Description:
- The chain has 25 helices and 26 strands.
- The chain is an alpha/beta fold.
- The chain folds into 4 domains: about 5-90, Ubiquitin-like (UB roll), CATH 3.10.20.740; about 110-270, 2-Layer Sandwich (Alpha-Beta Plaits); about 280-345 and about 520-670, Rossmann fold, CATH 3.40.50.740; about 365-510 and about 680-720, 3-Layer(aba) Sandwich (Dimethylsulfoxide Reductase, domain 2).
- The strands form 7 sheets. It has a 7-stranded mixed β-sheet. A 5-stranded mixed β-sheet has the order 2-1-5-3-4, sandwiched between helices. A 5-stranded parallel β-sheet has the order 19-18-17-20-21, with helices on both faces.
Amino acid sequence: xxxxNIEIDGKKLVADVGSMIIEVADDADIxxxxxxxxxxxxxxxxxxxxxxxxxxxPKAVPACATPVADGMVIQTQTxxxxxxxxxxxxxxxxxxxxxxxxxxxxGECELQDLSVGYGEDVSRYVEGKRVVKDxxxxxxxxxxxxxxxxxxxxxxxxxxIVGIREMGATGRGxxxxxxxxxxxxxxxxxxxxxxxxxxxxxxTAKPSRYKARAWELRESPSIAAHDCxxxxxxxxxxRGEIIRVVPRENEAINEVxxxxxxxxxxxxxxxxxxxxxxxxxxxxxWESCDWQTALNFAMTEMKRIIGASNGDxxxxxxxxxxxxxxxxxxxxxxRGLGCNNIDFRTRRRDFSADDKGNVRSGLNFPLQDLEHMDxxxxxxxxxxxEQPLATLRVRKSTGFGKAMxxxxxxxxxxFRLSHEIQPEPHLLAxxxxxVLSAVAAKKDDAISAEIKEWLSxxxxxxxxxxxxxxxxxGEQTCILLGxxxxxxxxxxxxxxxxxxxxxxxxxxxxxxxxxxxxxxxKLAGAVPNQSxxxxxxxxxxxxxxxxxxxxxxxxxHNCEPDVESLWSEQALENFxxxxxxxxxxxxxxxxxxDYANVMLPIAGNFETSGTFINIEGIWQSFAAAVAAPGDVRxxxxxxxxxxxxxxxxxxxxxxxxxxxDELREKYEVSGDKKVSRKMPEVLCSSxxxxxxxxxxxxxxxxxxxxxxxxxxxxxxxxxxxxSISRVKT
Length: 729
């Protein structure tokens, strides 16, 4: 790309040809006021607030829509520029209501800030102000449309970023209104980003409306805990109460966006039925007790059951959203007591390769590369309802590249598919093998005799061949396996196929995982086949065995297997039949009240410190934003004390940072082990296997999300987005 030399406010700069003045000014830290311009959206140039004075031009011009030219001299503070900006401000305030004292945006409103510098104390317009009827956009977004200045950021976000035109402009002149075309709510999984985009108070967060003013809030950085991307957030709180959660910019992970699930799940901590004291069940009745009594009870029962069965009849089920430190301590306690029954994979069926595979789960390439792919093959994944922000990156890539899918369900896509195959669930691996067969036909010299023999009975068709062509022809291509692929009875076969297709087409590949910390849980050793960082361990029982076969005792940490596992009903029955169930939970409701024997209150997300490792392998540590209420304690502290009560070595931690550093040191010594998967013996069994169940749904994935009131009022909370057809008889 060519370069040009320009000057802004006396500062000589070098800029790319085609850049707009406002982009160059932002890069040089030269401020130009704006309302409609946003770096992630297309140029609309409809607010005219960014007027600047360009030499040799008779009038001020908008900086957002004026490309730079060699030798251009620009002034942002001349009378010509300032007068134009003041005129724009006068027009914007003609109809704007004087709502600042009650507006949630008061104190952080762009219009309010700029009116101080560019507004007048008296308006020349005395006509009556227009009033616009508010729109009902659903339980997440509150509207005051009289304040709207028609910047169209919300409209462009839906059209360009999300690919769903939920908002638009109707009418002409002073009758222009922004809203939904037909009185409907906004149902997109990332809809609330328009709150951040709105430069005035027209769109605000409904759950936090009127709860606090901007200057009362303190801000703490943290990490979202509901999908495997690890979105960066800022938690806004006042006097120990979380008021709202907003995105924190991180171009490598979430850019400047945030899913609605990550934004509003905090309600479960503030409005959910919290467990505030330890409780023990006596004669079928729950009684509150002190921590010493509850921990002694848990220790005694664990010792009794583990000792009587040599560790075989006790097991731990770890939540997908537990921190890496908590998982590390949990497995350290169990293995210290001689028990290897620990797992977090409550939605996995195929454990055939538990003794192989990588230390870490997830992608083998940077997440942000998804938006640069010439071709992406999505296999058994529903990105919109599993990792909403990853969908935005894939959609961005389809502006110049291709997206393809092999999905055994009717997926909701917000990007165009060039090819789609929708097989029966039991034929998913077969269809993927057909793509490998098509690649093999085009790369015959690169295929081993062993793989050729394995593919001997596989016949590909024109669609498979065209998919293979796209993957081979593109400079940057990837195979992306969804959460659904990891729940499939042939998950390891699908993973092996993904690895082989990627190798032969020179593509990147990886798979999405359930929850926010599957990579961290696995690395910490919360699996029955390996200890921390891939160390060998005596093989224990996996989640399916523990929940299906039943044990005498369970430790359940930050999850509800009776709701979210693939074997929820069997889990419920076995929990009810168990001699002791120890539950580390944040909530005092649900079916856990029926089957647990002791409940230990743990701090929720934003109330504890810890580390999440996302699918890319990025370690993201965070501190508690607010203190936990009542007698609630961080889970890592509870597990540390349990380790001390068992008199196990290595439980003298004073902070979660010490736990993280201990694990990180072991990881750096061991390295990120990558083991090639073994070729499956056969493509598929002739026997019928259980077809995958319906998805948990967007807002039912973990205990915290299930208790977020605003999210549960949305249409997507009551529906399962994936409908699976059963194997035909």
